[in-house]
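Could you join me in thinking about how sequence relates to backbone shape in a protein? We need material for that, and I hope you will provide a protein of your own picking. Label the sequence line and the structure token line clearly, so we can match residues to local backbone shapes. Would you write everything just below, so we can both look at the same thing?
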Amino acid sequence: MKELPAAIHNAVIDGLTLLLALRLPGTPAADTIQATAKAWSVALAAGKTWDAEQDIPRIKTAFAVLAAQTDRWPAPRDLLGCLPPRPEQLKLEHRHRPSEKEKAAAAVVMVQIKTKLAKAPVFNRGWMQPQTTKPMKGK
């Protein structure tokens, strides 16, 4: 069975410890807390990919919300329901707007590059063509 990565698992343990301290109705017995933590780890790992950097703060927030709002021992799905969304990834935006002077300078450079490339040996493709040979006599 797949379980949570260690850092995520530790964040879940911290959250479960917070909930245990509240002694909510349905709280598991102290001698079953390790099994409870393992069950939560398996349930939260099922079908999900976790990223410690992004998800540990979200898990902490979700447990804080659960602790503040629940009146019974929650299930793992209750935690998932309290998870805030992952922060949006930064998007790079292209903002360069060259002036007419910059465009003209770039055009001059492009002409120079094309001129140099036209003279480059790699562009002499004559060597790629088969040379014509005279037919052999007698055949």
Summary: The longest helix spans residues 100-119. The helical segments are 6-22, 33-45, 52-69, 76-82, 100-119. The chain has five helices and no strands. The mean pLDDT is 87.
